[in-house]
Specification:
The complex is a heterodimer of chains A (272) and B (256). By secondary structure, chain A is of the alpha/beta class. Chain A contains 9 helices and 10 strands. Classes of the chains: A alpha/beta (272), B mainly alpha (256).
């Protein structure tokens, strides 16, 4: 196999792919017929109104839950009921996803301990990851001594220390204030650039989805389907002020917004 | 510092008043069963400083600690398992509820049959009464865990033992400690009762023996010593609890 010089995101080897993915809770179908690929190194935003099945999709993509229909492959292997090696998850609720009885450094290092990494090495890796998210010096603090934004940084450091090829984030910035949110967005973009990690970010915030992503997957309707996969042709690196001032930003934002609005309102008979 | 002194003073004044009142009211007592407090203090001095410490207090304490640790350890391990495996927990709940409600004195005869009249029987009874409050509270603690914690464990491929030791056990520990605190008081009761039957030795035996020999001041001094033992053990336990659960206290204080 020759190395591809093509850099367009869709033609690279997919790291994650969903094939006719669907999920139902009993009789209630939440997701239906989802087909998409995520290229290695890509940033994919998954956006949709609340209740469209974003969290269910994320659970199926991570292997926390097995889909009732279709398949998900990560690095060519089918994901079953357990999250695959090489994938890390950042949860929305940092308060419950971090362990309040463990110091920050031990929170980050626990998955490494389970992976059999020695104490000195895992402490080093954890300290490095914490420094990378701007939390050097907070290793010996407890999570609850930190602000919400800092706690989510700890959660990101934990994902980073796990040395994943892909990180899946579930509305990670939903419960922090606007300024913190912007800082965290830029942090995630920077980590993606420096480590080449593939990132899937679930959000209900369209601005956030557009600002961060290489591509946006718009989820809409009941049951939730892919309303569109939008290529984001905004220049990199992104900048909170100039990127959001681009005419393209406004266009993309309007497009996603319209799709979501329509998706929820299309009568059942009009659906394909 | 001043605040602490004030608090200690505030805590101490009533016990002091009670002791002084007892002292004054009993000073001229001719009653055989209620001797003057001064006489009780005298025997307390003779008995517990420190003549009977190696023969009665120390054996009692050893049984108590042995029984408490066995009961607590079993309660935690089985509680964790039952808390994680829900169907099992549902199945055993009627049994655990039944045994928890059973008074420790009622199981004494069967324990004597099973373990004889020696130390084993006493430790077994103490372990038995310790086991249930710890077990039930551990189960409750594990059941009340945030389901997200399970997702974290799964998502980060945390191994079973690490999950138990670093996630489920600490998460359940505030409730576990509440159960163990109840168990401390219950184990002192069980120790006293178990020592009143079977082989000689121990503080429970001392009290009963003094009563039988009409050594009433000694009987009283034994009762007071048992009270002090229970009090000190409770305080020690609180000290340990505060240390182990410092994260929990810090967190709840912040979230107010």
């Amino acid at each position: 196999m020759t190395l591809s010089t093509d850099t367009s995101s869709t033609e690279r080897q997919p790291i994650l792919s969903a094939r006719s993915l669907g999920h139902a809770y009993g009789q209630r179908v939440v997701l239906q017929g989802l087909d998409f690929d995520v290229a290695a190194g890509e940033f994919l935003s998954i956006v949709g109104p609340s209740g469209v099945g974003k969290t269910t999709l994320l659970q199926c993509l991570t292997g926390l839950q097995a889909p009732t229909k279709g398949e998900v492959h990560f690095e060519g292997r089918k994901i079953g009921r357990t999250p695959p090696e090489g994938l890390a998850i950042v949860f929305q609720d940092y308060r419950s996803s971090l362990m309040p009885w463990l110091k920050v450094v031990d929170n980050v290092a626990l998955p490494l301990k389970s992976a059999g990494v020695g104490k000195r090495e895992r402490t080093e890796i954890a300290a490095k990851a914490l420094a990378e998210v701007g939390l050097a010096g907070y290793e010996r603090s407890y999570p609850w001594q930190l602000s919400g934004g800092m706690q989510q940084r700890v959660a990101i450091a934990r994902a980073l220390a796990f040395r994943p090829r892909a990180i899946i984030m579930d509305e990670p910035f939903a419960s922090v204030d606007a300024q913190t949110r912007a800082d965290l967005e830029d942090l995630v973009l920077r980590l993606k650039e420096t480590h080449g990690i593939t990132i899937l970010l679930v959000t209900h915030d369209i601005d956030e989805a557009v600002y961060l992503a290489d591509r946006i997957l718009v989820l809409a309707g009941k049951p939730g389907r892919i309303a569109d996969l939008i290529e984001v042709a905004l220049p990199s690196p992104r900048d909170q002020i100039s990127t959001k001032a681009e005419p393209e930003f406004a266009t993309l934002r309007a497009r996603a917004y319209t799709l979501i609005k329509q998706g929820g309102n299309v009568p059942a008979a009009a659906r394909p | 510092m001043r605040g602490m002194l004030k608090r200690i003073g505030w805590e101490l004044w009533l016990p002091i008043v009670v002791i002084v009142a007892w002292w004054v009211l009993s000073s001229g007592s001719q009653s055989f069963y209620f001797p003057p407090l001064s006489k009780i203090f005298q025997s307390f001095h003779q008995d517990w400083l420190f003549a009977h410490v190696p023969t009665d207090l120390w054996p009692s304490l050893r049984r108590l600690l042995a029984g408490f640790f066995i009961g607590t350890a079993l309660g935690i391990v089985i509680g964790l398992i039952l808390g994680v495996v829900r169907p099992l927990e549902v199945a055993v709940t009627p049994i655990t509820e039944f045994f928890r409600a059973m008074p420790s004195a009622a199981i004494l005869p069967i324990m004597v049959l099973l373990f004889g009249l020696g130390v084993e029987m006493k430790v077994a009874i103490i372990a038995f009464v310790t086991f249930f409050p710890v077990l039930l509270n551990t189960i409750d603690g594990v059941r009340a865990l945030d389901p997200l914690l399970g997702d974290v464990a799964k998502g980060y491929r945390i191994r079973f033992m690490d999950r138990m030791l670093y996630m489920y056990l600490p998460a359940a520990s505030p409730q576990l400690f509440a159960g163990a605190r109840v168990a401390v008081s219950m184990s002192v009761i069980a120790m006293t009762v178990s020592e009143m039957v079977g082989t000689p030795g121990g503080m429970g035996y001392f009290v009963l023996d003094a009563q039988r020999g009409y050594a009433i001041p000694s009987m009283w001094s034994g009762i007071i010593a048992l009270g002090i033992l229970g009090y000190v053990l409770n305080k020690l336990f609180l000290l340990i609890e505060n240390r182990v659960l410092s994260w929990h206290r810090g967190m709840t204080a912040l979230q107010g």
